[in-house]
Amino acid sequence: MPRLANKVALITGAAGGQGTAEAELFVREGAAVMLTDIDQPGGEALAKRLTEQGGRTRFRVQDASSEEQWQEVVAETLSAFGGLHILVNNAGTIARQGIVDTSLAAWNRTIAVNLTGPMLGMKHCAPAIRDSLAKTGGGGSIVNISSTAGLTAHDDAAYTATKWALRGLTKTAVLQFSEWNIRVNSIHPGQIADTGFFRSGGEAFAHAAAAAIPLHRQGTPRECAELVLFLASEEASFISGAEIAIDGGYIAAGLAGMRNRLRAEYSAKT
Questions:
Q1: Annotated catalytic, 159?
Q2: What's the whole-model pTM score?
Q3: Strands, DSSP E only, in 79-153?
Q4: Active-site residue identified among 59, 159, 230, 250
Q5: Phi and psi (nearest 5°) for 30?
Q6: Which phi and psi (to 5°) does residue 56 adopt?
Q7: CA-wise closest residue to 98 among 160, 163, 165
Q8: From start to end of 157-228, where are the E strands?
């Protein structure tokens, strides 16, 4: 039996990177998937490809910061697929501005997409998931895509603030949605190759980041999607409120590893 058989999922930011990888795995595992993104050509092409492969998908343009659009997307999902069981808050943006250089416009837009968006998603999807579970039984799942920037320092002020806040918002959702049998977890990717965020950082940042990762490589969108699939499935039926770093050991041992290398280099010179 496919791991998401008879489930309906909504994935934001689905037109590229991790969102696309999640959509591909969810369809492979039997879910019907509502795909949303601000990238209309990319989203429509993905939906067409997955449908031609036998999947049940639909795409809708969505600005995750708009409450009206969230209401419309949830209504369309329920109408098209008859229910909703899984939400993946994957849409995000990054300004790459430090505190002194941050413009108010960049700050507000980052908060709107990265924090207000997931809040609105949970506000409007959780009741729909509750009502769907009342008909089908089983449990629901919400997965919030945070970042290692939600676990430690990061140069981008607005991005870091939103990812720490999303980590906390996930805990509040656990408190409020557990009685509806909806599990809520956050994942915290580090450097993930083949994504828009990765490319926007530049070669120097990617080189430095890889040097600080104990596994000495970037992750892939597929590896993140596999984790999201696990948390969305019944295999994770007793996991809620977790914050899972998927970062090649960066949070756990990146600092110590870098220190050891610098110590070895220093000792070799003396």
A1: yes
A2: 0.95
A3: 86-89, 140-145
A4: 159
A5: 100, 0
A6: -105, 105
A7: 160
A8: 182-189
